[in-house]
Predict the structure.
Amino acid sequence: MPSFSTKVFVVTEEVRKLKDKGFDFWSHCKKRVGNGINTSFWSDCWLGDIPLKAKYPRLFALELEKDATVASKLQFPLENSFRRAARGGIEQHLMMDLISTLDSISLSNSCDHWTCDLTSDGEFRVKELLPIKGCVETPYYTSCGPSQ
């Protein structure tokens, strides 16, 4: 039986091959925040379609904890981990916009997870890639089904 890392490598390779053929699998995947422990506040696309560091680059420049998780950032006032307070003008406007956006966020007890819009239930399964690619040709999948 192949190891978990081997399986991950095989799936990653298939996703890369699909991208080379013009199908961007990752554009169909979204991060869903539960408890926020495994989601990067600034780097993951968890609140919209782009990372917060790209949407708010001036605020990200002020951040001291650039690898902070959603859980850790929402535990205290947002600006607690900034090297200085946001100054007037655009910085203050961006800060108020981000704070306003975060006001509607509430964390749950469930784990963070990925969803995939290729299925009606939002769960990703490798077999969902088969109709897209035709047949996955790997040591573990041949003839459109698992190898023996």
